[in-house]
Amino acid sequence: MKELKSTDIFECTMCGKCCQGYGGTYVTETDIQAIAEFIGKSPETVREEYCQLSGGKPVLAQGEDGKCVFFTDKCSIHPVKPKMCRKWPFLEAVLRDEKNWERMASCCPGCKTDAPIEHVKAVIQALLNGEIQDEG
């Protein structure tokens, strides 16, 4: 059997398509701390200036263009991006319904559409199980 690698099915192009749209990216206290250290501000400043509340939880705010406030021409916090961002597109939703991969691939140029769906699901399952690491 072929060795499973995340790059078999996805390589981030840093295009920002996943950084836009309603919903927001939930951030944990660990995410806030990492972002604060990375941008040289306090966690309180990150919460106040770069987050908003959704369902009582902090999410990264969106700019007027509908993109994450940390997206300019690319992700400006990529090395410390929140867990929710790091998981994209290796989502459990693909295991529940393979059409979710098609939907994501239709808007994300990093998703490889030539990979057989069974291989996509095997890679995602292995990532979720911690059997392989995300190389992207």
Please give a structural write-up.
There is one protein chain. The chain is mainly α and 136 residues long. The chain has helices spanning 29-39, 43-50, 83-87, 92-96, 99-107, 117-128, and strands at 51-54, 57-60. It has a two-stranded antiparallel ribbon with strand order 1-2. A hairpin with a 2-residue loop joins strand 1 (51-54) and strand 2. Helix 1 (29-39) packs across helix 2. The two termini are 22 Å apart. The model has no long low-confidence stretch (mean pLDDT 90).
Secondary-structure blueprint of this entry?
Layout: H1 29-39, H2 43-50, E1 51-54, E2 57-60, H3 83-87, H4 92-96, H5 99-107, H6 117-128
List keywords for this structure.
6% strand, mainly alpha, two-stranded antiparallel ribbon
- H/E element sequence: HHEEHHHH
Spatial shape: elongated
Beta-strand content estimate: 5-15%
Low-confidence stretches: none
Rg over alpha carbons: 16 Å
Mean pLDDT: 90
Helix proportion: 25-40%
| Measured distance between first and last alpha carbons | 22 Å
Got a strand count? 2
- Largest β sheet strand count, sense and barrel closure: 2 strands, antiparallel
By helix and strand content, what is the structural category? mainly alpha
Spatial order of the strands forming the largest sheet: 1-2
